Amino acid sequence: MARLLRLDAGNADPKNSISMTIQRAVPKTVRSSGKNQAPVEQRVGIVGLGLMGQGIAACLLANGHDVMGFDSDPSKHAATVRHAATALAELKRQKLIDVESYKGWRPRLHAASSLADLAGCSLVIECVREDLELKRSIFAELDALVPRRTIIASNTSSLPISLLQEGRVAPGRYIGMHWGEPAQIMRYLEIIPGKQTSKATLRACLRFGISCGKEPAVLKQDIRGFLSNRLMYAMLREACHLVESGIADVETVDQSFRNDIGWWALLAGPFRWMDLTGIPAYAAVMEGLLPELSTGTDVPAMMQRMVKRKALGVANQKGFYPYTKASAAQWEKDWVQFTYDMRKLAERYTPKS
Question: Fewer Cβ neighbours under 10 Å: the N or C end of the chain?
Answer without folding.
Answer: C
